[in-house]
Amino acid sequence: VAGGGGSMLPLPRQDGAALHGSVCPSRWCVTRQDLLDFRQIVRVAVAEGRIVPTEQDNFDPLDNSVGPSITTVTSQLVMPLTLEAGKASWALSLHPDGLECDLFITHCWQEGIYEFVDKVLHSWPRRAQHAYCCMLSNPQNLDIADLISTPESSPFAKALKAATYMLVVPNSSCSIYTRIWCVYEAFLAYKWGKTIMTASRPCTGRLLAFARTILAFAAAVVLTSCGFSGRTAGREGQVYLFWASMLTAGICGAASMVTTSCANKVVNFLGASVCGILCGVSLTLALSPVEHFGRFSDGLFQVLPAHIVAINGGIAGLFFALREVDRVFDKQARQEAAQLHNGFTGKLKDAQSSVASDRERILCEIREKNCEIEVERAIEVLINAGMSTPGLRLASKHGVDVSGAGQWGVAMVFGVLFIFLMHPLIHFALGDSCDGLLAWVPWLKVAEGVAWMVLFRRLDPDQRGFAAHAGMKLGALLYAAVWTLWISLLAWRGDLEGRANCVPDSFGALVCGPLMLAVSALNMEHCLGVPVLGSPLARLLLANACRTSKRSSHEGLNCRTGLADREADSPKGSRGSPLEISDDDLESNKSGS
């Protein structure tokens, strides 16, 4: 469709009525590349004046982040081009034989096309190949009212039943769940046990957040090193500062896993700065001509030389920088959740439609199946967790707070790999882990770290969040707590000689590693099935998931009222298409969105 130099070429001509009669609606799909191409086609059409602002959609033609609404794009570009091409949908014009549906995209036509495409492409599931997208999949110039007259046999229902995933695209105008057809799709996804995910645009600001935290760490290293450089006096003060910074870094590490996003920003900067102080003090102690630092520190440096402590301090600083990146991701996730909550009262009966009969038929079907409360819970899980799956819905039913449970942090994975890969290798290189008959212990930890990473990569998106929390809490943090307590005890007793890391390494290899792997492989759904311990364990693991902000229902009334006003002032749209060319067509072809 896009020619050389940005020129517009016509779609391949097809007999739309015959084609849509012979190809199953579950095959009216487009590829990821089709969506990418479509975005560029829209940009060309806007630049050429084929798509222009309207009273209902006064978009900025120079904007490349939001763009014209899907309603505008469909009426001014999709419908004219597909009409010329024989009235087949955009999808079947490109793929006359159809493509099997892996992904069903649900949205409410209020979002800008660039915003929509960017979110879909960024959130496209790894295993999905083809997607059903109503504006491109439905024949916009045929009788859509007839196609959707019976909701359970509509193209939407057939495509969603064939799909593995449903992708929900939020927008800044209002919650898609103020629209009855989006509610119906949520009902079908719940009934058929589909994985429902929230689409999000590429996260901005993460590199800046990472750089700021690393800068705080580096500044602390330089200032501390310069402050103590060449000084042999006050050595005891350096040792106390060393232990104080080591303790504070541990507290910040634990706090970063449980605090709110606002507090996390402070904790991450404080943790990175303290790690910088730890690193700087360790470097001055390592380079010091004075060999004796006191009984407490002498023992520690026999087990873990000061330069190794400095390296560990640098790794810990990197952990806090990654936690700051995770905080930025969490902030965006809360914004997407707020968009889904904006105007949604939590009750399906409040969803609106421009055609009253559609609303009544859909609500009647949901009530007949006695699923109204369950669907409301599924939507609430989606808003809070970032996705809605059978496992997350079951967890919510068991009273587990699933807020943010569908997400996982880069810092969590980094922490697990450091404890189970880098840490045992450092101990092996220093020769202070187990030897003799137990020489295999550090290598068992390494094997467990590799096994967990392979398992994590193979898990479905909804299971990765649970596995990341299991790896971090049952593996990395539990081992780190035992190691710190054991080494501190031996250091206090002045008994840090020989292979002092053998005991905590053995605990990590024989307890933390198997527990981490077992729970991660079990996944949330099966974990909840464990008698007595299942629900408490799930609550423990998900206790630090990010907390999505919840809006009260009245906060969204303006959005919903505004939408109703726009509908009152403009021709009525359909779930499958927004505007018709003539009033006669409008009356005969459309039903409510």
What's a concise summary of this model?
The protein has helices spanning 16-22, 32-48, 70-84, 90-94, 113-123, 134-137, 144-147, 155-162, 180-191, 206-228, 235-255, 261-286, 295-303, 306-341, 356-368, 372-385, 390-397, 410-430, 441-458, 461-493, 502-528, 534-541, 557-569, 583-589; strands spanning 30-31, 103-106, 130-133, 165-168, 195-198, 387-388.
End-to-end Cα distance, whole Å, is: 29 Å
Strand order of the largest sheet: 1-3-2-4-5-6
Any idea what the radius of gyration is? Answer: 29 Å
User: Number of DSSP strands?
Assistant: 6
Write down the overall geometry.
elongated
Report the average pLDDT across residues. Answer: 79
**Main β-sheet description:** 6 strands, mixed
Helix run count: 24
Helix and strand succession? HEHHHEHEHHHEHEHHHHHHHEHHHHHHHH
Q: How much of the polypeptide forms β-strand, as a percent range?
A: under 5%
Structural class: mainly alpha
Could you describe the 3D structure shown?
- Helices cover 61% and strands 3% of the residues.
- The chain is elongated, with a radius of gyration of 29 Å.
- The chain is built from 24 helices and six strands.
- The N terminus and C terminus are likely disordered.
- A six-stranded mixed sheet has the order 1-3-2-4-5-6.
- It is mainly alpha-helical and 593 residues long.
- α9 links the parallel β4 and β5.
